[in-house]
Amino acid sequence: MKTMKKLAAMLAACGILLSLAGCGDKDKTFTGKAYEKEIMTPGEIVVGISADYPPYESMGTDGKVEGFDVDMANELAKYMGAEGKDVKVTFKNMDFSSIITALQSGQIDVGISAFTYDPERDCLFSDPYLISEQLVVLPKGSTVKSLDELSGKKIGAGTGTTGEKAAKENISGAEVTSPGDYTVMFEALKNGALDAVVCDGQVAKNNAEANGFVIMEEPLVKEENSVIVKKGNDELLKEVNEAVKQFKASDAYVELQQKWGLTEA
After folding, report:
1. Which positions carry the signal peptide feature in this UniProt record (predicted)?
2. Is the dihedral of CA 94, 98, 100, 106 positive or negative?
């Protein structure tokens, strides 16, 4: 009996120590800024990204993610640090449709992957950093001129993207599907497994130039790209918005658009 009482006392003591240790971790800081209480590790921003969408994000020949969003994330981190204290950026590559779930479950701090505002997405959106548009990409030699001609056709669009939503809303009678990432979809368009692909403007233009695809003249929708943050992380959103503001006012903003062939629509 005494042994059991001693064991219970020891377990209770351990519980108190662990609780105190947890409180200590929560109070740790790197920059001294309020947003650090809303990220996993002070001094590090973990970014969820889907590297199948050049020139925004893709895998480089060195096996690392690259693109406008990648470079921008590193620029934003400079403004989120403090004097003499640079914030580290860590990228987690995942399916686009998984990023918001990862955000909600605390696996990442922010999502940066050409996200556009959609009230149905369960997250917070930063101030926009780019203007974009959703375009319809057609096979080489296509003579399709109107959306009506795509009725009954198979249209590729990323799961959970605003392109998917725009295709379903604007192309009547079409089968909107996602057979894989955008690399797979453009291969499917090339070999006739898809009749069209819906994606961001610069992604469409890059693939059209590389493969001889045709782009429909009128965009399905014009939109703006934002960083996404978990609901409730208002201090983090405030910090990201300030970083976006400073980034857009910097020379790097124009330089990176030129580097990756992006221009505001």
Report:
1. 1-21
2. negative
Of the candidates 57, 87, 95, 46, the one whose C-alpha atom is nearest the C-alpha of residue 225 is 57
**Count of positions (residues) in the chain:** 265
Q: β-strands 65-66, 214-215: how paired?
A: unpaired
At the top level of CATH, the class of 132-222 is: alpha beta
130 DSSP β-pair partners: 225
- Residue 222: phi and psi, rounded to 5, are -105, 145
The C-alpha atoms of residue 45 and residue 36 are separated, in whole angstroms, by: 9
* Two tokens, residue 15: 């519980």
CATH architecture of 34-131+225-259: 3-Layer(aba) Sandwich (3.40)
Residue 240's SS3 state is helix
For residue 86, the 8-state DSSP code is: P
Give the model confidence (pLDDT) of 195-243 as tens digits.
Answer: 999 999 999 999 999 999 999 998 999 999 999 999 999 999 999 999 9
Prediction pTM value? 0.79
Angle formed at CA 42 by CA 37 and CA 43, multiple of 5 degrees = 145
Provide the residue ranges of all domains of the chain, joining segments of one domain with +: 34-131+225-259, 132-222
Query: In this model, does residue 153 exceed pLDDT 80?
Result: yes
The answer to whether domain 34-131+225-259 and domain 132-222 are alike in fold is: yes
Where in the chain does DSSP place strands (E)? 44-49, 52-53, 57-59, 65-66, 88-93, 110-116, 124-125, 130-138, 154-156, 175-177, 196-200, 214-215, 221-229
